[in-house]
Specification:
With 434 residues, this protein is of the alpha+beta class. It is 28% helix and 26% strand. It is globular and about 70 Å long.
Length: 434
Amino acid sequence: MLIKFSFENFRTFKNETTLSMLATTQRTLNNVLIRKGKHRILPSAVLYGANASGKTNIVLAMQTMQAIVRTGSLDRASNAAVSSLELFPFIHDNNISPMSFGVEFIKGENQFRYKLSICVESLNQTGKRTVFEEKLELILMREDVLLFHRTTDNIVVGADKKALEILKHDNPEELLGLVNSIVRNMDNETLFLTGGFKSTICKEIADVVIDFISDKIMPIMHLPDIAYDNKILIPIENLPADHFLPGIELFDAIVKAADFGPQQIGLRINESDTGKHGLHELEMISKYREFFVPSDLMESAGTIRLLHFSLFLKSFFSHGGTLFIDEMDNAIHPEITKSIIALFGNPEFNKNGAQLIFTTHNPIFMDRDLLRRDQIIFVERDADSYISTLHSLAEFGSVNVRNDQSFMRNYFKGRYGKLPYLDLETILSQGLEN
């Protein structure tokens, strides 16, 4: 599970910024926390901020880091997802600083910290790209063990007794020879983590880090797309004779609880499906009396999104991971969103340490019975420097954040930062005059 996500020189975030999922010493709502060893970890966090404050950039930063690690290279031709890196550095001065990303996470019983810094030429999409730095550490109870540190022209692999034991190398001189060989053939656009470290030094640890960033983190920029990004597949041998799967308990429960109607909603083979690789792609279908109708012709878009998302969440909770969603409540009713937050904060249901981080404008989630103060995070952008910063509600003094007061009421009083204001009447009036 995610402990910290750091980023620097990315879009509106010029300075190093850390989104921490470590709980503070707050005593209320301790029952929602994920316990892992010595850590008390937040199951969810809600990001607030005005338009253009930088909320979306946090999700985009994670998406960008993930794309680079999945690709293993900065090469433009290798993956469309890394084709626009030159558009991401902070743009409002002439800075030439590296763009950096870092994750600290727990996988199994181990805690890792991985940092990646890259250099690109801002706005020049044909410019040179270079991996400036990579660093991987294993975090132990009493020490941080360096596993490798890669710079533009050198690689240092941990060679002390503890590091050699972790990397499963017992000959320091032989390890040094391997590293020197990698350095001689080093490509400045290729990650050491996914390249030489995985192929030559320690595949087991490389796979843990790569798999966490690639598969356990899921950034979603547009929630309705999840219906298309996560297709529903079923093995051919499990398909019923009538090709209709009505007995989806999750669908039945939601349709009944939400009072969508008397119809039954299930899944059926997509008419364009070929059964390739022994799997059939399914589409949502509604049953009215004895008639079957594609759900997108009969049900609201919100109903279909909720049912698709419920299937996704069921799978997500069973495997664990960290969801980053931009403006989740734009696609789901706020009251249902509150129920989803509560699921992440229920240890009996969330047994695999799944986490949810999402951006919103809706202050309804500023509820002290729903979220802890350290789960409510504000994103602000300075009017003069255009630099975005993060701060949680837990960072405000006790005078402004008292548990016997309404967080939402204090928010509208401006006690947690400047509220967005736009005099549209004046702006539109001037526009009409011109």
